[in-house]
Structure formats: C-alpha cells, structure tokens
Amino acid sequence: MSSTLDRSAVQASLNVWQMAQRQLDDIAKIIGLDSSIHGYLREPKRVLQVSVPVRMDSGSHRVFEGYRVQHNMARGPGKGGIRFHPDVTLDEVKALAMWMSWKCALVNIPFGGAKGGVICDPKNMSMQELENLTRRFTSEISIIIGPEKDIPAPDVYTTPQIMAWIMDTYSMQKGYSIPGVVTGKPIAIGGSAGRDKATARGCLYVVDEAMKELKLSSGGARVAIQGFGNAGMHAADLMAAAGYSIVAVSDSRGGVANANGLDVAKVIAFKQETGSVAGFSGGEKLSNKELLEYDCDVLVPAALEKVISADNAPRIKAKIVAEAANGPTLPEADDILYERGIMVLPDILANAGGVTVSYFEWVQDLQELFWEEQTVNERLRRIMERAFRDTLGQANRLKVNMRQGAYAVAVGRVAEATSLRGVYP
Ligand code: NAD
C-alpha cells in the first residue's frame, strides 16, 4: 500500500468519482478481485440525465438539470436517496450510487446502489416550486424507477413531504397507489415506524458491539457527538437511554461539554427552544475542533465530511470512532487512527441503519402489512450486529482496518452476485 503522503497527494487531485473508483481499485488489490469483474464494477450500470422544466411562482418556466444513476443491480433493485442542492454534479451522484452498492451489500439487504440529484437551491424556492420540481423530476425518471426497479429515498434537502409527492406522482401515472416506489415517506402513507431514528439506532447497535469486542463496559462510557441533527441528536438520546454518558455535543454554532455527563433531555429542549446546543448552561462551552479531541471513549462525528485529518488524528482520545456522518475521516487520518489502535466504525457500517429500515419500509409496503416499532428495532439490531461481525472478521482475516474490512465484505458480495449472474447475452 502507498504511504500516507502519497495517498493524500493523489486524493487531493481526484474528484469524488475518481476517489470512489480509487477506493474500489485499492480493495480489488487487497481481495484479489477478478479483473473483468473489477472493470464491470468500476462503472455505473445506467446514467439518466434529465431536463426538468418547472413553472415558477413568477409564471415563467425554469429548466433544472437532474440525474438518476444506477451503479450495480446484481443483488436487487437500486436503492439510494435524491439530493436537491446547488452543488450536485453527475460525478458526485455516480460516486454516491457506487457507495450505496457497497452499503446495501455490507448490511446484506437485497438492493443494488443508486442515487439521484437535481441542481437547485431549495432554500430559495417556495413549497409550490419545490412540488412542481419534484413531480416533474419524478415523471422524467419514472422510466427507470419503480418498486421492483429502483427505489429513491431522502437525502440532502429532501424531506418526507418530497417523498410523498414522488409516491403520488408515480402512482398517478400508473393509476393506483404504489407506496413501495420510494422510502422515507410519512407514516400516514406507508412509511415505517422507527425510520426517523434508524440511522442513530443502527449506530448505537454497532457501538455496543465494538464495546463488547474491546471488552469495555457501555455503562457510563463517555461519548462525544459532533452534529445535533437527525443523526446526532437521536444518537445522543438513544445512547443516553442505553446507559452511555454523553459528555460533549455540538452543532454548527458551537458545543457544550460536561465531564460528568450532560442532561440530554434538557439539551434537546434547549436546542428546540434556541436553535442550537451552544450556550446550554449545564456544561462548559467548547468549539467543534475541541469536541473532536475531547476526553471520551466513543467519538461520533455526525455532521460534516473531512473533519478528522492527519492534523487532529494524533490527538483523538476516543477508543472508538463511529462515523454516523458520511466521509468524516480523511484517508491519511485512517492510517494514524489504525496505528494508534483506535477502532473506526466506517460510515458504510455505522450509518447503514437508515437504509436498513428503508428496506423494511419497502418490504412492509409490498406486503401491505405494517410492523410494530419493536419489531423494526429488533430486526435492525440483528442486521447491524451481523454487519459488525462480518466487517471485523474480514478486517482480522486480511489484517486491514475496519473500513477496508467493510469494503472487502461489500465489494466481495457485489462481485459474487455479478459473477454468478454472468454477462448477458
Ligand atoms: P442534519 O442536517 O439533520 O444535521 C446536521 C447537524 O450538523 C446539525 O446539527 C448542524 O448544526 C450540524 N453542523 C453543521 N455544520 C457543522 C459544523 N461546522 N460543525 C458541527 N456541526 C455542524 O443532518 P443529518 O441527517 O443528521 O446528517 C448528518 C450526517 O449523517 C451527514 O453526513 C449525513 O450524510 C449522514 N447520514 C444521515 C442519515 C440520516 O438518516 N439522517 C443517514 C446516513 C447518513
């Protein structure tokens, strides 16, 4: 394997899609992947680019550009969110679709990887404009989505309401209700119990497993969480309820710490009242930079990408880093954490609870039989525990870090399915 410096220099010059391909190339070498299957997995199966004309509130029309990419569907229909953001690019959507193939394979749910995006600025659009955009985009991509083909979900700036419009538009075209075309819907139209907390809950379950593996007791174990949104806030709440001591939390405006443990219910109430955890009186003020290096047993980055670098990795005190966020750790930091004996639970494992309960939502929609939240959580726990064990087993066998272990499991599964099905005709 190339040195840390070589790798970071190379990574800096690559765009996100080339980085995703490079990750696959690295794993292909480690697992000795057959070169023809490797070539197959390096490219997306299908890329659809659409023009989306939208009637704006002014009465004029504006044309937006959107994409749906299906990376690999050998293991089942495509699965992946739709992102509405000004910085969406086709290369980003291709990379995210490839990562969805690996994430679904790692938790062993019968989906391939897909992703969608529209270049737009939803913060500067009215609800009516957003609805018009969502419905026309759905109509344009309806030739490749469907409950048996490709099932979108929420991603950056797309909400349960937007999922409801996707479901309605697709259903209107077919003439009857088809809730299984999309997940992350409101419960009233076929969403799943437990979906809102699923990412955080999945993260808790893999942290529990890592604690057992490292022979640490979760009772009173100290946890620092960066980001207090869907992933971070629910993680704080669920981990506190499970007996962990939440010693530091933060959001975009700053953080708060208390070495004796924060009162999480009060922090949540404070955040709901003021819009931030910063300024909460039950602890001391700390910056986001300080939070990452705070004295704790478990660090949960649940906000942004690229926050753990070669600069701060030597000072991280946690024994476990659980990546609720996507891509919080730079490759050079990975090597440092591994050498320091810190167990990193990679994003495709630590935040896979969301897509797993999306899978449950799709199953429930197809069966028209809905489960109690307890059933959802029990099944989620089994899947997360198995994914943790598979990752650890592979990492130990190959003598690599947990991220490479997870990729080795996932890429191996997609490669096996692709190879078994063969090349048509
Ligand atoms: P969110 O928008 O609900 O919350 C993001 C949080 O990060 C907010 O509290 C925000 O204040 C905070 N934040 C923003 N900038 C910050 C900064 N500079 N420093 C510290 N905190 C900052 O988003 P989310 O859904 O919780 O997603 C967070 C991460 O988890 C993302 O990487 C996302 O891709 C990943 N993720 C989320 C889910 C899910 O189901 N929500 C699933 C998989 C992965």
Terminal Cα separation, in Å?
Answer: 37 Å
Global morphology: globular
Strand content: 15-25%
The counted number of beta strands is 12
Number of helices: 15
| Helical residue percent band | 40-55%
Spans with pLDDT under 50 lasting ≥5 residues?
A: 1-6
Query: The biggest beta sheet, please?
Result: 7 strands, mixed
Instruction: Specify the CATH architecture of the domain at 198-350.
Output: 3-Layer(aba) Sandwich
The CATH topology of the domain at 198-350 comes to Rossmann fold
Description:
The protein is of the alpha/beta class. Among the domains are: 44-180, Leucine Dehydrogenase, chain A, domain 1 (Rossmann fold); 198-350, NAD(P)-binding Rossmann-like Domain (Rossmann fold, 3-Layer(aba) Sandwich). 46% of the residues lie in helices and 17% in strands. The chain contains 15 helices and 12 strands. It has helices at residues 4-12, 16-31, 35-41, 90-106, 127-141, 160-174, 198-213, 230-241, 264-274, 288-292, 331-339, 347-350, 353-367, 373-398, 402-421; strands at residues 46-55, 61-72, 78-85, 112-119, 150-154, 222-226, 245-251, 254-257, 284-286, 298-301, 320-322, 343-345. The protein has a 7-stranded mixed beta sheet, sandwiched between helices. Strands 1-2-4-3-5 form a 5-stranded mixed beta sheet, with helices on both faces. β6 (222-226), α8 (230-241) and β7 (245-251) form a beta-alpha-beta unit. α5 crosses α6, α7 (198-213) packs across α8 and α7 (198-213) packs across α14 (373-398). It is globular. Residues 1-6 have low confidence and may be disordered. Nicotinamide-adenine-dinucleotide (NAD) binds at residues 199, 226-232, 250-252, 288, 302-304, 324-326, 351, 354.
